[in-house]
Design a protein that fits this description.
five-stranded mixed β-sheet, GerMN, GerMN domain-containing protein, 26% strand, single chain, alpha+beta, 6 helices
């Protein structure tokens, strides 16, 4: 784990001679993401970042994110009473540790701060994901769901006051049928914050399981979503190790295609890859390789009427 204090001292000395490294032109390879003066959105400004060791570049960007600006049009995203106490980089995943004051931020300020920090740091070639911790605990949302690894695509742009608006949508989710050998499509109307991506909304509701007692949750109990993001039509879903727990009541392809088919309802998604804590080696159970891209497959979908008939017959057989 890298201690940021030593780096900040070094960067401060360098800044005295470099004018903080900020360029006046827009042709810089890197940008710092700040908050606008109204603190309603994230704005980018070109930054002259010296190429070098990844650790040095991370330290420089973190220092800039925590340093007051010279402009009245934008301001630093990390408040003065919030400090980054530690950080570490492991396999393209950057872990940032904040002091307890981070949890005292207003919700809109916190989302904007997080977006600015993540967008700034993932510009580095060796940083693909960023994860926040407050103290030693992973950052969680208002519903105590761990936010996990984030990328630039984790944040939906909503200008002005729209940042925390509540919207309503209808999701098309695929849950397991009564026998665990088929999928049933369900329409579910949900209200959600405009800050959450549609991919994350789908995965969270899929993990919650169905409201219909004749259906089953397709994913193993206790599975948590680490991250979900879409790039060039491919949706990358990262789940924690609980996903590997065996639930033989649900057949193997039903688990995989509940995820793939549900996410593929989004028009911009053509393929899905599933990983466990960011790792794509190995297979799920016996035959579904984690390094493969899967397309929507509706061959396992059965009608709701078929499922209700099966469920009724099963209940009749159980009745003495």
């Amino acid at each position: 784990m890298k201690k940021i204090a030593g780096w900040l001292g070094f960067i401060l000395l360098v800044s005295l001679f470099t004018g903080c490294g900020r360029q006046e032109t827009d042709d810089s390879a890197y940008h710092i993401y700040y908050l606008n003066k109204e603190k309603t959105k994230v704005v980018e400004q070109p930054y002259d970042l010296k190429e070098g060791k990844t650790e040095d570049m991370i330290a420089t960007l973190l220092d800039a994110l925590c340093t007051n600006t010279d402009s009245v049009e934008y301001q630093k995203p990390v408040p003065g009473d919030v400090t980054i106490t530690d950080w570490s980089l492991e396999s393209n995943q950057l872990f940032l540790y904040f002091n307890d004051n981070y949890s005292k931020m207003q919700s809109t300020d916190e989302v904007l701060c997080r977006a600015a920090v993540v967008k700034t740091l993932v510009q580095l070639p060796d940083v693909k994901y960023v994860s926040f911790y407050v103290g030693d605990a992973p950052l969680a949302d208002s519903r105590d769901n761990v936010i996990g690894l984030m990328t630039e695509e984790s944040f939906v742009e909503n200008p002005g006051k729209q940042i925390n608006s509540i919207q309503t949508t209808t999701l098309h989710l695929y849950y397991a049928n009564a026998d665990g050998n088929g999928l049933v499509e369900c329409e579910k109307e949900v209200q959600y914050s405009s800050n959450i991506s549609m991919e994350k909304l789908i995965m969270e509701n899929l993990l919650k399981g169905p409201d219909d007692k004749n259906l089953k949750a397709p994913l193993p109990e206790g599975t948590n979503l680490v991250n979900v993001t879409t790039t060039n039509g491919i949706c990358y879903v990262t789940l924690d190790e609980a996903f590997l727990n065996q639930n033989y009541e649900i057949q193997e392809p039903i688990v995989i295609y509940s995820i793939v088919d549900s996410l593929s309802e989004i028009s911009t998604i053509s393929k899905v890859q599933i990983s466990v804590n960011g790792k794509t080696s190995g297979v799920y159970r016996d035959s579904f390789a984690l390094d493969q891209l899967y397309e929507q497959n509706l061959d396992y979908v059965v009608s709701a009427d078929e499922n209700e008939t099966v469920s009724t017959e099963a209940q009749t057989e159980e009745t003495p």
